[in-house]
Amino acid sequence: MESPEDHTETVKEHIRHEAMHKSNEKQIMTYAITSAIYAIFAATASLLAGYHSNESIVEQMKSSDQWSYYQAKSIKMNVAETKLEILKAINPHFSDEKILNKIESYKNEIKEISQIAKEKEVLSEQHLLKHISFSRSVTLFQVAIGMTAFAILIKRKRFWYLSIGFGLVGLGFLIFGFSS
Questions:
Q1: Staple partner for 59: which of 42, 64, 86, 124, CB 3.0–4.6 Å?
Q2: How many CB atoms within 10 Å of residue 51?
Q3: Tens digit of pLDDT for each residue in 22-79?
Q4: Rounded Cα–Cα distance for residues 77 and 113 (Å)
Q5: Residue 79 and residue 174: Cα distance in Å, rounded?
Q6: Mapping DSSP to helix (H, G, I), strand (E, B) and coil, where does residue 127 land?
């Protein structure tokens, strides 16, 4: 016949097992929520990285267009200057206000075009820097998600803490992307 002490020990063991199982469920739920938060941040950062990548390319193309326009105007200015030089070589006293005004107009236009092209280059560079920051954020959030999954699989809380570290650095890059 079983003694009451043995019966109590079985009940205690059952309670410990249930408590451990419930505690593990709560821990896994915490890990899952953390991973979901990382995924939300990663998706947001990914969209922003793509947007800024595209904007960087568009601004660079606009800058290239402006430089092409600059070259075209420079060529026209050089043709007008050459025309004036040839006419002066033929007749040293030659002067044509129309050609001089055209040359001056070209000089002013290429200054303005050059300024616009440089502004577009700066905008392109700014978008590229934001893209890089958001891309780093995405990478770190993905690593954090992987570390959380690893923590669940091997049941080691230290890997979850490590995922929090990666997540915080990822969040830092995300915030930096907004502020730069």
A1: 124
A2: 14
A3: 567 888 899 999 999 999 999 999 999 999 999 999 999 999 999 999 999 999 999 9
A4: 14
A5: 52
A6: helix
DSSP 91: -
Closest CA to 60 of 110, 122, 12, 18: 122
Q: How far apart are CA 167 and CA 34, in angstroms?
A: 9
**C-alpha–C-alpha distance, residues 158 and 141, integer Å:** 17
Q: Any idea which residue has 């200054």 for tokens?
A: 111
Rounded Cα distance, 68 and 59, in Å: 14
- Burial class (CB within 10 angstroms; exposed 0-12, middle 13-18, buried 19+) of 3: exposed
Q: Which two tokens stand for residue 82?
A: 């050459």
Q: Of 120, 126, 131, which is closest to residue 62 (Cα–Cα)?
A: 120
Q: Is 69 exposed, middle or buried (0-12, 13-18, 19+ CB in 10 A)?
A: middle
Q: Decide: 45 and 170 in contact? Cβ < 8 Å.
A: yes
* pTM for the whole structure: 0.76
All residues at 6 or more sequence positions from 99 whose CB lies less than 8 Å from its CB, including other chains: 80, 83, 84, 87
